[in-house]
Amino acid sequence: MFPQFLLLICVLPVQTLAFPSQHTVNEKSSPHLRASRYSRSGNYHIPSVVQNGTSKARFDIQTPKTTLDTETLFSLDAPQIDPINSSVFEWWYFDVVSETNPDDSLVVTFFTSSMEAFPFLDPNETSILSVWLWASFANGTVFEDSVPATVATVTGADGRTNSSGNWSPTGFTWNALTANLSQYEIIIASEKLQVEGRLTLTSRAPPNLPCGIQPGRTELEIAPHIGWVNLVPDAVAEVDMEIHGSTLKFRGSGYHDKNWSDRPFIDSVQSWYWGHGRVGPYSIVWFSYLAINDTTNTTYVSSYVAKDGEILVSACDPSILTVRPIGKPGTTGGRYPPYARDIPDGFRLEYDLGEAGQLKVNVSVRTVVAGDEEYYMRWTGDMVGEVESERGGGGPKKEMGERDAHSSSPLVGVAVLEQFVLLE
After folding, report:
1. 213-248 pLDDT tens trace
2. 243 and 296 inside one domain
3. How far out from the chain centre does Cα 25 lie?
4. 297-335 confidence digits (pLDDT tens)
5. Tell me, what CATH number does 322's domain have?
6. Can you say whether residue 46 is alpha, beta or left, with left for phi > 0 and alpha for psi between -120 and 50 degrees?
7. Are residues 113 and 228 in the same domain?
8. Within the chain, which residues score under 50 in pLDDT?
9. Within this chain, do residues 67 and 102 fall inside the same structural domain, yes or no?
10. Are 231 and 77 in contact (CB under 8 A)?
């Protein structure tokens, strides 16, 4: 989600907390963050300058049921950090990759962060509010640029109005079109970037929280100090954009999530593998993470698999998901745990689906959408997979397709994926 002129990162030793983290920001007396800029109408008005004082973050929510009601959904798409001081970051992320040609892709990210908290932002920008746009074309062209905002407004925190965001006066907005957040529209009218058009998402799968939805109270930390919610794991998405006079128009697999943290990125992350896509009838999301200076080398994961819109797996048990890089012989691309400048050719994913078997997917990286070839990379990719189900006494049975009566084709699909590796 970041520009090509990334800064070199100095990873400093820090003390790693046990998970779940015991920081005091988890202790909250109200279901929503409240501050001087949080109005009774459910609107957040976020200024463009770093705020003084201690920030508070929300890393859990009340979930009396195993489904998310409208108010809870809206609160998940609202700001989770307040106020934005120099140590915290938060972003709202939307993407789409073409189903027919993964070289076509679009990513839009709305940031509230200083460069001190998230050092992959523009070092020359003073506003903590910015929107980044990345677009890749079938002809190999990759466009990336950003625009600062003077104020950001996020609505819907009270559950009475649909979620929306406006980073003014950038010309970038998002709007949830339905009360259950199953449809989004991102509208761009940026004279500065010479970009105009829209991205629409219509969800194909239910929302995903790091460990699924738990009775009573649900954790929102994917790892210590890293919050994550995935409101649209997979969507039918349509892009219709004019970018510097070039048309980008396609249909594909879309996605929306958000991340936040109550401390600087480099104080938490050693490595971070994330991606999503659709392979055959399966909507999949993966997140595999190592914390910096964790002597136990604990792997934090979140696994999500839905088939035809029905959730098969939504969990954070590391025995359910394995993510490993794949590299060419003679290179460090397949090394694990990874180090900075280890650039893989792809990833091997293995999901334990319980009685449904094992979903095994090879993801091959394709178009480099963003990155510095050191600490951060984002790609579009191709996926090929299979499901192995146990057959009583007869060993594993491979299902190489959706397994209708006549299918023998492999599961295939497209993905967007990324890695951060900050360990030297």
Report:
1. 998 999 999 999 999 999 999 999 999 999 999 999
2. no
3. 22
4. 999 999 999 999 999 999 999 999 999 999 999 999 999
5. 2.40.128
6. beta
7. yes
8. 1-40, 399-407
9. yes
10. yes
